[in-house]
Amino acid sequence: MAQCVQSVQEFVQDSFVPMVAVLCSEEAERVTRKNNLNFAELLRPFCRLTSEGHMRDPNNQVQVVKNLRIFVNNVVTSPNRPPTALSHAQSKILNEVVLSCQPQEGVVNNVVTAGDYDLNFSATTPWFETYRENFLQSMPASDHEFLNHYLACLLVVSSTEAVPVEQFLKLSQEQHRIQHSGEYTNPKWFIPNTLKYYVLLHDMSEGDEQRADAVYEDMKQRYGSQGCYLLKMNTRSFSAEGDEQIPDPWSQYLQRNILHTQVRTAASSTYTIERLRGLVETIHPLQLDITSSSGSLHTLGAVKTELKKGARDPESLAGGAGSHGACLTLNDHDHIRQFIQEFTFRGLLPHIEKNIRQLNDQVKTLILKIWEMPPKHFCSCPEYPKTMTSSWYPPEAPELQIRKMADLCFLVQHYELAYSCYHTAKKDFLSDQAMLYAAGALEMAAVSAFLQAGAPRPYPAHYMDTAIQTYRDVCKNMVLAERCVLLNAEILKSQGKYSDAATLLIKMTSEDSDLRSALLLEQAAHCFINMRNPMVRKFAFHMILAGHRFSKAGQRRHALRCYCQAMQVYKERSWSLAEDHINFTIGRQSFTLRQPEKAVIAFRQILTNDSRQTATQQSAFLREYLYVYKLKRILSPDCLPQLPLPCIHCSATRVYFGHERRLAEGEKQAATHVSLDQEYDQDSADMWCHLEEQLVAAANRGIVPVNFQPTQCCLNSQTDNQRHPLAVVEEPIIVEVTFRNPLKVSLALSNLSLLWRFTADDAPPSKEKMTNELAITNEEILALGVGVTVYSGFFVLCCHINIHSTFDVMVVHGKQDLMIQGPRLNQTKEDKMTVRHGHDQRLNFIVTSPMPLMEIFFLQFPTALLCGEIRKAYVEFCNVSSVALCGLRVVSTHPDFFSFGSQATTPLTPVSPTSAENNSAYKTLATPPQSGSAAFEMLVSAEDFSQPSGVIDIPIDGSTLQPGESTQLPLWLRGPDQEGVHEINFLFYYESTGKGNKISHRVLRHTVFICASRSLSVQASACRSCVPPHHSLGDKGGGGTLIFIDVENINMSEAGMREFHIVQVSSSSQHWRLHKCINPAKDKDCKLTSRERAKLCFRATRCKPQKDAIKKYTFTDLNLGNERVNQKTSSWSRTFFWCVSLQAYVVEDNKQLILEGQLHVALQTIGKEASSLTPREEAQEMVLLKFKSQLPPPVILPSAELSQLVKTSLHYPETYTHPFVQDSLCVVPVTLTLSNCSLAQVDVIIDLRHKGTSPETLEVHSSFTWVGQTQYKLQLKPQEVLCLTLQACFLQAGVYNLNTPRVFAKPAEQGAMCETSQQTASPSLIFINNA
After folding, report:
1. What is the pLDDT of residues 535-576, one digit of tens each?
2. Which residue ranges does the record assign to the TPPC8 third Ig-like domain (predicted)?
3. What are phi and psi of 1253, to 5 degrees?
4. In 3D, which of 1202, 1227, 1245 has the Cα closest to residue 1328?
5. Residue 37 phi, psi dihedral angles, 5° rounding
6. Cα(1214)–Cα(1218) distance, rounded to whole angstroms?
7. What is the DSSP string of 677-693?
8. Can you say how many angstroms the Cα of residue 206 is from the centroid of all Cα atoms in its chain?
9. What is the average pLDDT across 255-269?
10. How far apart are CA 571 and CA 583, in angstroms?
11. Is residue 1299 a contact partner of residue 1321, using CB atoms and an 8 Å limit?
C-alpha cells in the first residue's frame, strides 16, 4: 500500500474513538453560527487531547490513555436501515470526497529504481486516506458491536436564555426520549445510562458575564462540578481587531463533515446516484466505436458537463459563505481546547471507568451463577432465535455484556483486557452460530492483539481472514468486510507483508462498487512496487485495472493519473498493443478533462510508433487524433503545432546546392556532375577529394592551403557536416526529405513547404516553395525535394504539412522540425564513457557573394573504343552565370585517355554527325615511292617532350570565359590498353575573376564509361647485330641493333572487324633511331585478319651526337604504306619509345569504316622482350559476363581421328651457306605442305611462334625465328593439298630444328580445335654455314 501520514497504530486508534452526541438549544446554535459553524464543528479541531489521561481497570491498575481523540457529532435521527451496504447518498458523497482530493501540482514525486525501470510516482495517496476516514465515519451503527454507539451527550444552552436550567431539562428529556422511547433506532447508545454533560455557552460580545457566572454556579449545585462547564467565546471585536490574522483550523475538518450534513438532504436531491452512474456508463472508457464519426468525443464532453452539473454546492463544502471562527480569538481557541480536556478527563473517562467496573461485576456474577447451577439446569437455558448470519440477543445477554465491556476497554486503549474479552465472546458467538457477532469479535480480537504494547502474542492474521470471509460470504455485508480489509491490509503492510496485503486487497474487488475496487486495486499496485524485490509489471497491470475502475466510477482525473503511471512501465518495451491502449485511453480522458495538449501528445504516440493494430483500428485512432488536434488548433490558432505524421527520417535528409544539371541536348552530352539520384560512396568521395587536392595544389604553386575543404555539392548522413556549408546567392538549394507512413491507412498530404529563419540583417522575406498534393500509402517511403531560393543570411529549416484524412474532408495544419542529430563522438575518454553527439550543420547555410557557374557539354563522345584507338571528340564550356570565370583546369583518373587540341591549330569541327571532315586521328603526308624503306627523322627539344603532370590547363582564348560566353575545344581520346569497361572521371576546376570570396573555387564532375575491346598485341625485342660496323650499309655511326616486332590480331569479333593494317612504325629516343625495315619480303603494308600474326624486323642505329647543350629527342617514322603519319603532332607519341600506327577496317550498319590508332611498346633493355599488354592480359581470353551460376562445360578430349585430319611436311635445303659478315640476317625459304586426309572441309590455323619443348628439339640450336606473317587461318577442301611459303631468319651459323610450327585443325561443322600429331615427329634439321 501507499505510504500514509499516520502510523498504523494511529490509524487504528482513530478508526475507533468514543462517540459523543450534541444537543443544542436554538439560542446556542445562533451563537455558534456567528462563526459559520455549528457546535459540533466548532469542537472538531480540538477533539484530540494533547495530555495523558489516567483511569483504573477492574483490577485497580492504573491505565494510561495517550493521544486520545473523541468524535463529537450532532444527534441525527433516521429510520432503521440494513447496515449491509452504504446508501446511494453515502456512496455519492464518498465519490465526491475522492473527486475533490487530487494530487497537488508541483509536488516532487518519488523515484523508484527497479532493474532498468525508473518510475516516478507519488508515494502517498491522500485521496485514499480521505476516502478511508470518511468511510469509517459513515459506517452505520450495528447491533452486534458498540464501537460507534454514543457514550455521552453534550447538552448545550446559551447564557442568554431566560431560564437556562429549564432548557437543560428540555434537552435532557429530549435525549431520554430519543434513546428510550423506541421511536428511533438511530442513533444508537452504548449504555442505558448515557452520560449527560451540561455546557453553558456564553457569548462575550452580547451576554451578561455576571449572569452567566451565576447560572454556572447554580449548575454546579445541580449537576456537580464534574458534570457541567461554562464555555465563553466570541470575544473578538471586528472594529478593534480587524487586522489581526487568526488561524483557521476548521477548514481541513469541514470537508469531512459533508457526509453527515448531506445524508439528511440526499433523499430530496434531484441528481441521484443512478443518474450519475447512467451518465458515466454512456460511453465505456475502453470501448472503441470504430464506426462512429469524428465527433464521437462530443459525447464524452457531454458526460463531463453532466458530472459538473451534478457536483455538490461549493457552499456546502465550505460550510457556508465567509470565514470560519471570525468571532474567536486565540484565547477562545484555548478555552475550547480546555473544555474538551475537562470534559474528557473529569466526565467521560470516569464514566467509562465506572461502566467497565459494573460490566465486569455483572459478567463475573453471571459466570458464577452458571457454574453454581446443577448440571440438569444446563439444558434448560433460554434459547434465542438464531440464523446463520445473525443472532438475536436480548440486551441483558452475558455475551453482549462481554462484548460491550471489550469495546469500552478498546476505546480507552486497554487492549490486553479487550483482547481477553473479545476472545471469550468469540467462543460464545461461535458456539451459538451467531456468525455476524463472531466475525466482529474475531476482527477486534486481532486488532487488539496487534495494538498491545510489547507484542505479547503474534498478530493473528487468520482471525482477520476468517472475519473477512464471514462478512463477505456468510453475512453478505460488504461494508464490514471492507472495513476489515482496510484494517488488515494496513497491519500487514506495517509488518512488511506486501504480497499478502496485495492479495487481500485484490480479493475485495467486486462489481458492486467501482470506486472501492479502483482504490483497492491502486493500493495493491503500491504493494507490488514496495516489495523488497519490486514487481514492476504487476504494479503497472494493477494500475491499469485501477484506472479502468476509476473511469467507470466517474473519477476521470484519477483514471488519467493511473494510466500515466502505468505508462512508465510499458513505454518503449515492445508492448505495442498495451501502449496503444494506454495512450488511447489517456488521450480520451485528457480530452474529457479539457486538456487538449495532453490528449494530442497521447494520440501522437499511437501514430508515430510502428503499430500492430489493424487498419480499421488505426483509422479510428487517426480519426480521434485529427478531431482533437483540430479543436486544439481552434483554441490556440497562433502557434503551428507539431504533427506526428508522416514520420520524417531526419538523418536521411539530403541537401543539394545549385541547379539540377541539364540532360543531353541533341548530340550534346551534359557533364554528369552530382545529382540526388546518385548514391553516396565513400571510396568515390575520397577519389574526388584527391583529384580536387591536385587541382588546388596546381592553382597554388604546388601547395594545398591549410584551410582547404573539399567541395560537397550534396550533403547527407555520411558526409562531413560539422562545418556550415556555403551556398551562393541567388542559386537554388534543394532539400530532399524522406517521409514514411507507419500506418496501414493512406495519408493525403498537400501544401508541403519549407520554413526557415533568417539571421542576417535587412534580408528580404523568403517565400515558401509549394508542392503539389501527394498521397503516402501504407508502408511507403517518399522522398520529396523542395527548392528554396536563397537571398542572404543563415537559416534553419523545418517542414510545413497539411494532412487530409482519407475518410472525410477534415484537414489539419502543422509542421515537423528537421532535427538532425550529429554523429556520435568517440575521440576522447569522456566521449567513449558517455553518449555525446557532434553538430550536424547541413541545414545551416552561410550564403556568400555571387560565383561563376559553368556547364560543360561533350560532342561526338564515344562509348566504345578499340584498345589503342584514337578518336576525336569536342567539349563545349558555357558560363551560365553573371560572373566571369578563369583558371580553367582539369584532372582525371586516366590522364593518358585524353588530350586537348588548340583552337589555333585545329579547325573547329561542326556539330553535325554527318560531317566527317577533320575527324582523322593523324596528320598524314603523301609519300612518293622510294627504293628501300628509308626512315624520316625529326628532332624535338626535351621541353616539348617533357612528361606532363596530372593537372592539365585547358587552352581557351584569353584564359577567361565571360558571362554568357561559350567556347568549344577538340578532345583527342585514345582507347585504354586494357580491355573491359573503364570508368573514367574528370574533375574540372575554375575560379572567379574577383578575389576575396569565401568560396575560392568551384569544380564540376564528369564520369564516363568506355568499353574497350581487343585490337592488336605488339611484342618487341632488341638484339645486337652481328654485322661489323664497316660493313653496315648506309650507317655512318657505330654498330647497329636489330628490332623484332611481333604483331598479333587478338580481336575476337569476327562479324564486324575485317582486318588490321600496320601503316607505320615510329620511335622516339635520345640515343636510338630507326634506320630501315629489313623484312625479307619487302612488304609495304602488313595486313592481319582474325587470329593472324606477323613479325617485322628493323635495324636501329645510334643517333648522331648533338653539338648544342639542349637535349633533344629524335622522332623516326618508318611508313609501311603510301602515307606517313606525323607522330610529332600526335598526342601520345611523346610518351613511348616505340609506336605502331594501325588502321582497322570495320563493317558497321553495312558500311565500311576506317578506325585509326596507336599501340605503344617501351623497350628498356636489349635482349628483354616488351609487350603492349601485361602477361596476365596476354594469356587470358575475354570472358563473357555470367548472370547466373552455370556448370562448366565438360572437357572433350580429342580423338585419334580428329588428331589426324591434316598431315604436314616441311621442304627446305638441308644445308645453307650465308655470308654473316656482310649481312647479319640469313633468311631461308621454307615450304609447308598441308594435306587434308578427310572427306570434309577442315579449318586450319598455323601458329609459327610455337617453341618446341620435346627432348629432341632441346638438343639442337634453336636461335632462329620465323619472319613475315606468323599466324595463318586457312580452309582446306576435302583431300586438298596446299603449299605455304614461309621464311626462317637465322642470326648465326649452326644446326636448327625447323619443326616448330603448331597446326590446329577442326571440321568446319565443329567448334573445338585439336592439335595434329605432326608435332611429335622427328626433328627437321637444317645446317647453316658461314661463308
Report:
1. 999 999 999 999 999 999 999 999 999 999 999 898 888 888
2. 1007-1129
3. -120, 10
4. 1227
5. -140, 150
6. 13
7. TSPP-HHHHHHHHHHHH
8. 77
9. 45
10. 10
11. yes
Nearest to residue 968, comparing CAs of 873, 871, 861?
873
pLDDT at 189 over 90: yes
Q: What is the pLDDT of residue 1315?
A: 53
Is the CB of residue 97 less than 8 Å from the CB of residue 255?
A: yes
Cis peptide before 895 (omega within 30 of 0): no
User: Rounded mean pLDDT of 216-233?
Assistant: 92
Q: What does the block give as the cell for 682?
A: 565513400
- Per-residue exposure over 441-477, b if at least 16 CB sit within 10 Å of its own CB, e if not: bbbbbbbbbbbeeeeeeebbbebbbbbbebbbeebeb
Closest alpha carbon to 1043 in 1220, 1161, 1144, 1148: 1161
Number of C-beta neighbours around residue 985 at 10 A: 17
Q: What pLDDT sits at residue 150?
A: 94
What's the angle, vertex CA 682, arms to CA 676 and CA 684, rounded to 5? 75
- The neighbouring-strand residues paired with 969 are 875
Grid coordinates of 177: 426520549
| Buried residues in 879-907 as b, exposed as e (16+ CB within 10 A) | bebebbbebbbbbbbeeebbbbbeeeebe
Instruction: Determine the length of the chain.
Output: 1331
**Residue partners of 729: CB distance under 8 A and separation at least 6:** 790, 791, 792, 847, 848, 849, 850
Q: Could you tell me which residues come within 8 angstroms of residue 995 by beta carbon, excluding any fewer than 6 positions away?
A: none
Can you name the residues that pair with 972 across neighbouring β-strands?
872, 899
**Axis-axis angle for helices 576-592, 556-570 (nearest 10):** 150
CA distance 1070 to 319: 121
Residue type, 985: N
Asked whether the beta carbons of 1172 and 1166 are under 8 A apart, the reply is no
Among 669-678, 721-730, 946-955, which is the least confidently predicted range?
946-955
Name beta bridge partners: 342: none
Tens of pLDDT, residue by residue over 71-95, are 999 998 876 555 677 788 888 889 9
CA distances from 72 to 18, 45, 249, 343, 544 (A): 9, 10, 16, 12, 40
Q: How far is CA 540 from CA 111, 112, 284, 579, in A?
A: 15, 13, 21, 12
Burial class from Cβ neighbours inside 10 Å (0-12, 13-18, 19+) for residue 1090 reads middle
CA distance linking residue 447 with residue 433, whole number of Å? 22
- H helices of 894-1029, in order, are 942-945
Contact indicator for 1241, 1277 with CB cutoff of 8 Å: yes
The single-letter DSSP state of residue 940 is E
> pLDDT at residue 14 above 60?
yes
Average pLDDT on 301-317 reads 38
Determine contact, residues 863/1010, Cβ cutoff 8 Å.
Answer: yes
Q: What are 727's three cell numbers?
A: 551556398
Q: 166: which residues sit within 8 A by CB, 6+ positions away?
A: none
Residue 960 CA to residue 7 CA, distance in Å, equals 94
H helices of 1107-1226, in order, are: 1175-1179
Side-chain half-sphere exposure of 302, counting CA atoms within 13 A: 10
**pLDDT at residue 677, rounded to an integer:** 78
For 316, the grid coordinates are 456546502
- 811 or 718: which carries more pLDDT confidence? 718
Task: Look up cell 652481328; give the residue.
Answer: 1026
Provide the b/e sequence for 713-741 (b: ≥16 CB within 10 Å): bbbbbebebeeebbbbeebbbbbbbbbbb
C-alpha cell at 4: 500514509
Under DSSP, the state recorded for 990 is E
Calculate mean pLDDT across residues 509-527.
Answer: 94
Lowest mean pLDDT among 379-388, 857-866, 870-879: 379-388
In a 10 Å sphere around its CB, with 0-12 CB exposed, 13-18 middle and 19+ buried, how is residue 361 labelled? Answer: exposed
pLDDT at 899 over 50: yes
Mean pLDDT, rounded, for 628-635: 75
* Nine cell digits for residue 112: 523508484
